[in-house]
Design brief:
There is one protein chain. The chain is mostly beta strands. Helices cover about 0% and strands about 50% of the residues. The strands form two sheets. Strands 2, 4, 5, 6, 9, 10 and 11 form a seven-stranded mixed sheet that branches. Strands 1-3-8-7 form a four-stranded antiparallel sheet, with no helix packed on it. β7 and β8 form a beta hairpin.
Amino acid sequence: QVQLVESGGGWVQAGGSLRLSCVVSGRTFGNSHIGWFRQAPGKEREFVAGVSRRGRTNYADSVKGRFTISRDNAKNTVDLQMNSLKPEDTAVYYCAADYYGSLLGSSASRYNYWGQGTQVTVSS
């Protein structure tokens, strides 16, 4: 069974940085596309960033230039470095794995396995 565990969330002032990590177990990590999503209260879950099994990356327009996603296939981890954080980045952040798609997707429905989420709070 595939398990994803996020860590690294917390509280930070606007302009600060946080680094989220996602550890994946239970299936060959190198075969997965990994996405980071977030969900703020009263809003739908939205795509933040993704990295394909071949290392290609994709970002939501709202985080381009501020967030960086990276994967380490030797450690089965995907990190999300978040800089210049804004209050509107406040949300629960989830990592998710897609083992079946041929291309990296940005729709939550493409992802088969999800972590439990980690809270990120950015104060103004």
